[in-house]
Amino acid sequence: MNTKKALAILKEAGYKYTDKRESILTFFEQEDRYRSAKDLLDYMEARYEGISFDTIYRNLNLFDELEILESTELDGEKLYQISCADHHHHHFICRTCGVTQEIDLCPMDEIAKKLNNYMIEDHKFEIYGLCPVCH
Amino acid sequence: MNTKKALAILKEAGYKYTDKRESILTFFEQEDRYRSAKDLLDYMEARYEGISFDTIYRNLNLFDELEILESTELDGEKLYQISCADHHHHHFICRTCGVTQEIDLCPMDEIAKKLNNYMIEDHKFEIYGLCPVCH
DNA sequence: TTTGTAAATAGGAATGATTACGTTTTGTGC
DNA sequence: GCACAAAACGTAATCATTCCTATTTACAAA
To answer: Is residue B134 part of a domain?
Structure first.
């Protein structure tokens, strides 16, 4: 995923192109790791004085829906990063810097068989720790 | 885990025995599924007029630390249930009623090998959906 | 049984993340 | 350029949780 592709997805879905949206995408493309709404707000406030929470959160939710971003929830805070692959995968997540490492192994197929009468909607498999740089 | 064993753990760790703590344990023993702080508060308020948030949250955190309860975080809310096994395991969790089904399969051993330079602290593997009763 | 004291609780304020909402501004198709 | 719907502003509200101080209580030692 890159800014160009993301703006195409937005246009396709009938959303407007704004400079704030482009900035948000640039932020996530540059960072390429999990970042919080607060992190984005700090970045945006430096560029757009008086930007509102509404703009931050509305766009984060929108981009998440459109799968331009992927999200997770850690210690009571939602985190977002630029969508990193088009196939099913999981992540190692660095608790210090938010960097992720893709994990392609997923045990769901095996497990689904054992949950016969259960309706499985989704699942979360994440590994937490410190990346090589942070420890 | 049952109330008796939990009270023994409390005593062992030097914590006091109070009727509120016993009530909290009774609640989770009866429920035997993930419940929120709010659920517990409702239960406790019916029994102890004017019980404070502090008592609810302090004891939830304490019981979680002592592994009398196990916890997870779902949709921005912490959930707790009575500790259900003494070996490593994961859960299917029903989104409607909070009932859990133990999953003994864990792919971490295989994955740890692939994350050579990473310091792995912990991991979360949860399956969400509807239990046989709720769908 | 009484007493000292550290732990537990009450009551409510504070915090932090997120959502809501009425008003104003701005992109975009015509 | 114009009209209109979407986006953003500014700020209040909400929700879960934590924090704080005064008061009460459980428990152990005398």
So the answer is: no
For residues B93-107, average pLDDT: 94
- Alpha-carbon gap, residue A98 to B87, rounded angstroms: 30
B95 & B33 share domain: no
Write the CB contacts of A100 (distance below 8 Å, at least 6 apart in sequence).
Answer: A33, A34, A81, A84, A91, A92, A93, A94
A72 and A108 both lie in a single domain: no
CB proximity A15–strand D (7 Å threshold)? yes
Q: Which chain B residue's Cα is nearest to A119?
A: B130
A64 and A23 in a common domain: yes
Alpha-carbon distance of B89 to A124, in angstroms, equals: 14
pLDDT reported for residue A107: 87
What is the Cα Rg of chain A in Å? 17
Nucleotides of C under 7 A from a protein CB: 7-13, 17-22, 26-28
- Write the CB contacts of B98 (distance below 8 Å, at least 6 apart in sequence): B31, B33, B34, B35, B79, B81
